[in-house]
Amino acid sequence: MDVLRAVFLLAATLSMGLVAGVFGLYWHAVMPGLAKADDRTFVGAFQALDRGIMNPWFLLTNFVGALAFPLVAGLLLLGQPAFVWVVVAFVLYLVVFVMTIAINVPMNDALKAAGDPNQIDNAAARKAFNEARWVSSNNVRVVLSTVAFGLLAWALVVFGQS
C-alpha cells in the first residue's frame, strides 16, 4: 500500500509542477511577449497557442492530472500525516481548475471564434478578448498552483518521514 501511496503522491506532485510551470510560462514569457506584438500577431499567435495546448498529453498529465492525482493520493493517504498537505493542495488546484473553466477557457474560445486573423478586425478581436482580465486570472492560477506544488512537495517529505 505504501508503494501505491508513494506513486500517486509523486504523480500528483509532478503533474502539479507541470501545470504550475505552464501557467508560469504564460506569466513570465508568453503574455509579456504577446503584449508587445501588433494586433494581428497577438490574435494569430494566441489562437495557435490555444489550439496547440488543447491536446491529450497536456489535458491528461497536466490539467486534469493535477486534479485527479492529488484526489487519489488524498484518498490513499487518509489518516496519514501527509494527508492534510495533499488536501490543501487539491483544494487550491480545484479553485484553479474552476477558474480556468469559468474564465480563461471561454475567453480563449471567444478569441478563436473571432476568426482567421487575415480576415477579421484584429484590433476589435484583441480588445474584446480583454488581455488584462486574462492575465490577472492567470496570475492567480500561477500563485495557487505553485503553492499547491510546494504543498505536494512537502507532502512527499512528510510521507517519507512517516
UniProtKB/TrEMBL annotation:
The chain crosses the membrane at residues 6-27, 57-77, 83-103, 142-160. It comes from the Bacteria. Coiled coil: none annotated. Keywords: Membrane, Transmembrane, Transmembrane helix. This is DUF1772 domain-containing protein. It comes from Tenggerimyces flavus.
